[in-house]
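To fix ideas, we give here one paired sequence and structure record:
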Amino acid sequence: MRELRSRRQVGELADEVSRERDTSCKTRSIEAMPKRKKAAMPGANRKVIARRGRTKSDAKRTAILRGAKAVFLACGFEGANMDEVAARAGVSKMTVYRHFGNKEDLFAGVITDLGNLIVEEDLERIFAKRPDEALRRYARKMIDIVFDPETIELHRIVVAECHRFPKLGRFFYDSGPQVCIDVLARYLKKNLANPGFRVVDPVRTAEEFLELLRGYGHLRVLLRINKALTRKEIETRIEGAVRHVLTATG
């Protein structure tokens, strides 16, 4: 019995020694291995990677806004959901929320995109032309945007939802009509001393100019009475707005 116990103890001791030897060998092997130094990433490479990351993120944001606009136009604000937006954009729902915290922010992003259409073109180049030509070009640009079917439908959505979400109405106005007014008012202010301009209050004149372009024709389209302005109506509105601002037109 003692012999059996002794053999067992010897075996356990041998196993322990073996484990210690293996551990020691592994430790020495690891210590002996040369440590690899992390290669420093050149500054230029870091900038390229960062730029690529931003480009990819911008592309996803653009896709989300495009998908969101399609969903809002098809379902309205209340009926739109983030799952459908993600599916339309080809991204995950988490990616949508990473860019836009909620549905209100997403709709605001769509409206901001609409506002960017107003200023994305080189307006300085437009307003550098002869006054009558500059105003005609700006007027045509405004009519194209304001009477665009998608803009009309977004306008309808805002009117339908602003009693429940007042911020939508304010954001729509600030990102759309107010931008149009501000852009034109700045141009008119620069020409206050020009005798060819019939301007006393640049902001008021800008509002009147834009209202002459919209008129009741816009209300009829908004209410689905008419589908769009005729070509003759467009030209008549443009000429009327230009004559309201200038004392003489070319």
